[in-house]
Specification:
493 residues, alpha/beta, FAD/NAD(P)-binding domain, Enolase-like, domain 1, five-stranded mixed barrel
Length: 493
Amino acid sequence: MRVKFDYDLIVIGGGAAGLTSAGIGASFGAKTIMIEADRLGGDCTWTGCIPSKSLLKAAKLVHESKKLHDFGVETDYSKLDFQKVMKQVHHIREEVYHDADRPEIFEAMGIDVVFGRASFKDNRRVEIILNDGGSKTISGKKIIIAGGSKTKIYPIEGLEGSGYLTNETLFELKEQPTKLAILGGGPIGIEMAQAFNRLGTQVHVIEASKTIMPRDHEGLTVILKETLEKEGVTFHTNSKLVKVEGKTGNLKLHVQQNSKNEILEATHLLVATGRQPNTKALGLDKTSIAYTENGITVNKKCQTSVSHIYAAGDITGLPAFTHYAEHTAKIAATNALLKFPQKIDLKHLPWVTFTDPELAHVGATVAELKEKGVNFKTYRFPYTKVDRAAADSNTTGWIYVYAKPFSGKILGADVLGVSAGEVISEYALAMKNGLSLKKIADTIHPYPTYGLGARRAADQWYIQSQKPWMIKLIQKVFGYRGKIQEIDENTII
């Protein structure tokens, strides 16, 4: 006898993973409900990707305006109205919400959208404490948990009660910080360091590692750090924040670097020390779902230890990117509803830090390749040789591609430079579909574009593949008499 459930699919969470899961559920004809505690859109729309990129855009306009005189434009852009800047940031995220995330959009698909806090009563039933009062309990044939994450806060003396900022409160500021200290030199910290510095705030970044952006290519992060230092950002690497005195407006930060202690004065403190999955309020202890402090445990199909329950996005402890949340949601929903075997793809995951210049990566890192003993070569191309970068006066950066020497099979890539996110996307597509550097090099790219830099880097595989004996053979066969070029691993043409 078939058991009757209230819904074919229950989706907990209305962020990137939840919206994608619910949308797929509806498209597959499943009776779907999506439960969200706050607003649809999640961190990305309200406190992450959209507001941060909008603020970066405003900061870039301010920065670029200072260069206008180089092009013969004499205008005073020295005045900044921070409240107008933030008003525009809020306007942009409202536009994104209206165009893509409004409840009406999903209700039109046949999805029941409910606002409240969801927690499990058992493996099949979910209780919803409704935001407008009351509660109800529903059952689901399939359940996808997409509860997202929040800023991870480490225990630091005096931090609690200091009025520190996170990405959840940063974009609600009414007044511009005079002196902003940022704890954490990862993507969020570095993006906001550049943004606020360019807007005129004095910025200090405190990072425990020896360099910023520790997951990215060390040589490229050094260039990025030097670029930001030239703009005015101060970095304290190999450093720990051990104590906070005072409150927002008048903070004293005790910073320890090895045996040296320093006190930094700041008006505001932004904590950007990584993400923590939102698992605490879900009542997971009432289920058989396996989880740790790092998130809900899932297999490659995004399936939890309970066969009909799946999890997607940040709550899994997998890389906390919006595009990866959407990817895992597709995997979870497809496996849950169609039983069509799909597996998560970590091998071809790209990421981008949207500083100026941008820093991007896809595939294996150099350290990973060396650790595994993989035979590979690095093919490099500088932005100084990308003609579009020269035309735009944006020549800071490099393209590094790691590939098999003989076949040109791409194993990974790192890019620092303007539009690095677009360039890395070309390599991500090539890797996913088994396209070699030869295929990229043989593909016509429009001139002058930044994408052409991806092809020029691929050209280096051809160049490095040329051996003196091959050229001598060609000369002998065809009677050519030119000079044979000396080509080594440092040759860039």
